[in-house]
Amino acid sequence: MRMITEARITKTHIIFLSVFFLLLITSCAKPADSNQSIPGQSGMIENKGSDTIVNLALAWVEAYQKVEPEVRISVTGGGSGTGIASLINGTVDIANASRSIKPQEIDNAKANGINPVEFVVARDAIAIIVNLENPIDQLTIDQLSDIYSGKINNWLEVGGEDRPIVRLSRETNSGTHVYFLEQVLRKGDKNDKTLFSMDTLLMPSSEGISAEIRQNPNAIGYDGLGYVTEDMKVIAVSVDTEGPFTLPSAESVNSQQYPIARDLYMYTAEEPSGAILEYLNWICTPEAQAIVKELGFVPIVQ
Amino acid sequence: MESINWKEYLITRMIKVCGYSAIIFVIMIFIFLLREGSATVIEIPPDALFSTRWYPIEDYFGILPLIGGSFIVTIGATLIAVPLGVCCAIFIAEIAPRWIREILKPLVELLAGLPSVMLGFLGILVIAPAVRSILDIPTGLTAFTGAMLLAGMAIPTIVSVSEDALDSVPRTYRDASLAMGATKWQTIWRVTLPAARSGVLTAVMLGIGRAIGETMTVMMVTGNAPVLPTGLGALFKPARTMTATIAAEMGEVANGSVHYHTLFFIGIVLFVISLLINLAAARIVFRQQKRAERILS
Q1: For chain B, which residues lie within 8 Å of any Cβ of chain A, measuring from their own Cβ?
Q2: Structural domains of chain B in order of their starting residue, each with its CATH number
Q3: Which among B235, B99, B94, B92 is positioned nearest to B155, based on CA atoms?
Q4: Which residue has the higher pLDDT, B10 or A19?
Q5: What backbone phi and psi angles, to 5 degrees, belong to A258?
Q6: Cα–Cα distance between A171 and B226 in angstroms, integer?
Q7: Which residues of chain A make contact with B263, given a CB cutoff of 8 A?
């Protein structure tokens, strides 16, 4: 149960905690350090990162407790960037990320003597969501790109009502934000320098996006499939105007029909061993992947 | 006798240390901010730093929209909180019958104890939708929504401190004014309020200080879009404040990166702004006090 409460930690708490830990580290005597140098060996695994994965990671830990009651794993959210930054700073054993690690982050890690190792643990579809009152059912990637970059500002231009478009996005430290920028706004083109429209609302949490979508018929937002609830409308997406327009689901992601889907990652500081390796191996078992499906993500093995 | 002197010496010293520690802490915080943030001045050319685009993951570090965002939210909060707060204080101190006063004062002070996250929830779920439908604007997540909630947080401070100031105006002032034939309103506006002016101004400055430094509520309801506000119309559009930016992004940055230094630089800017507000307040209070003394003595 302790782990579940920890997952609800907000950014302010993180800052608070880091200050606290800073004090703790400076006041601690040497012996504590020798414990830290063997991550996982002490039976305590620190797992932190993407908010998209945090519920999945918690569900895994809960199930893993029954398999290996000896191993303690603590899970916290905060965003992919936060998780990877913690991995680089050496404060976590496993970083969760909904995007792959950037070359610059690898350089930073190497400078700190850490060689990140990548594992794909699940897949996720990014759902485009609008208010239930919005008559729009489908959009192309081009239209989405134009909406979010500020070229389209009224729902009328994509066949909807005469309403201004309010763009909602996750904060820049979210892996979902970076993925959406690269794959939707820039359509996967590395040389494209398109940016989010300046008046895009950057919400600090998935819940912030959901709350605004539920009550504002002008709004459009995006979020991991796992966060979509009954009281919002999911838009069918197509690469071009010919279609087919597909709704995100486990089937449409695995058949690669739904265009906005991605891999979810876990990173370890070194080639994993001991308890961490066992945990990562367990995640790839059908038993663990069944949980992936339950939470609305797409399993890597059936 | 000797033991009393010895105790006296110790107590004086301890009080001295406490007094100086406040100054030392402020200086140490400022040195820390300078050490972490001053690198920004070298890393980012001034025209890029004072540009209008803030998008750190693509190396756009224009801090003007953030400064503007903080200003517009704070100005909005001040415009709402000061008249309401001061009038509420006047009502409690001068007009309300004793029993109402005894209910109102603790209630207002209870309001001050509300956690800001709770106000943020209230903002997201109730005030933002209401602002959107009443004002008929695209989204309720605006600087104005943030300003309203911040006003809600500043009002208890303003009421409590100005009520104390009004309360400490000697009874004789009011009696003299009323004896001269002034009405109750004239007495309040021309005599009691000017006499309590320094206290009321301190209250206002404390309120503004609370508004500009508040983070959580603002982050939840202002939409966080880094758009440079131009004119008062920007009050009804989304805004991103300096505090929200630091809180939202500090967890993500790698130690020692350009982004990290820039966030500390924003911290320096915030620090300097609140220092200036406090200095201005101190000057005004000092001057007013002298004038009030001149008039009333």
Answers
A1: 53, 55-58, 60, 65, 117, 124-125, 128-129, 132, 138-141, 215-216, 219-220, 223-227, 237-238, 240, 247-255, 257
A2: 38-296 (1.10.3720.10)
A3: B92
A4: B10
A5: -75, 120
A6: 11
A7: none
Q: Is the dihedral of CA A32, A34, A35, A39 positive or negative?
A: positive
Q: How many beta-carbon pairs below 8 A join chains A and B? A: 102
Low-confidence winner among A20-29, A219-228, A245-254, B241-250 (lowest mean pLDDT): A20-29
ipTM value > 0.85: no
CB atoms within 10 A of CB B103: 10
Q: How many CA atoms lie less than 13 Å away from A218 in the CB half-sphere?
A: 20
Q: What integer pLDDT is reported at residue B290 of this predicted model?
A: 63
Residue contact B248–A203, C-beta within 8 A = no
Mean pLDDT, chain A, whole residue set: 81
pTM over 0.80: no
Q: How many CA atoms lie within 13 A of B112 on its CB side?
A: 18
Q: How confident is the model at residue A222 (pLDDT cuts 50, 70, 90)?
A: very high
In whole angstroms, what is the distance from residue B196 CA to residue B293 CA? 11
Structure token pair of residue A116: 């990140």
Three-state DSSP class for residue A127? strand
Given a contact cutoff of 8 angstroms between Cβ atoms, the answer to whether A10 and A81 are in contact is: no
Residues whose CB is less than 8 angstroms from the CB of residue A160 and which lie 6 or more positions away in sequence, other chains included: A134, A135, A136
Collect all residues of chain A within an 8 Å Cβ-Cβ radius of residue B237. 199
Q: From CA A272, how far away is CA A275, in angstroms rounded? A: 8
Are B207 and B89 within 8 A, CB to CB?
no
Distance CA B273, CA B250 (A): 20
* CA pair distance A72, A61, nearest whole angstrom: 9
Per-residue pLDDT tens for A75-107? Answer: 988 888 888 988 988 889 999 998 889 888 888
A208 in contact with chain B, both atoms CB, cutoff 8 A: yes
- Report the distance separating Cα A74 and Cα A59, nearest Å: 12
Cis previous bond, A103, omega within 30: no
Distance, in Å, from the CA atom of A259 to the CA atom of A247, rounded to the nearest integer, reads 10
What is the phi/psi pair of residue B269, to 5°? -60, -45
Nearest chain A Cα distance for residue B207, angstroms: 22
